[in-house]
Amino acid sequence: MPFIPSGTFLGSAFGRGADAGESSAIVSGAGTAAANGTYTYRGQSLGYPYYNLVGQPDDPDVSSVDEVGDDGRFKIKNSAGVGLYVQTTNGHSFPWEGTWGQEEGALPVPTVTEG
Questions:
Q1: Quick one: CA dihedral 28, 33, 38, 42, positive or negative?
Q2: Which residue of 3, 33, 47, 68 pairs with 75 in a disulfide if CB–CB is 3.0 to 4.6 A?
Q3: In this structure, is residue 53 part of a structural domain?
Q4: CA angle 44, 45, 46 (to 5 degrees)
Q5: Do 74 and 57 touch, CB atoms closer than 8 A?
Q6: Cis peptide before 57 (omega within 30 of 0)
Q7: Positions in the chain whose pLDDT score sits under 70
Q8: Is residue 95 part of a domain?
Q9: CA-CA distance, 14 to 93, in Å (whole number)?
Q10: pLDDT tens track for 86-110
Q11: Which stretches does DSSP call E strand in the chain?
């Protein structure tokens, strides 16, 4: 069992881990090239972190990676707010967890890593 220092925030279903969530989300390999890039942490929406593509306005609904309900699935949206890709499993605290599936974006689906 790994040692976890007292007071370390590991995330929870409410107010998910802002400390780790303040990293960037790096989207790569998406068939829709406009989805690829670095998304910077902007804040929380519905208790989950959200990220905007570098150079885009602070808005969880456009050019973003944000949680799409209350089940812990993140979605990658374009500048019109259209969902391009969505996580295929739920219960995640961050977009770099889990696997991704296609919505309106072109194949292949992207890889999302923590930046």
A1: negative
A2: 68
A3: yes
A4: 120
A5: no
A6: no
A7: 1-21
A8: yes
A9: 10
A10: 999 888 889 999 899 999 999 999 9
A11: 25-28, 37-45, 48-53, 64-67, 74-77, 83-87, 100-102, 111-114
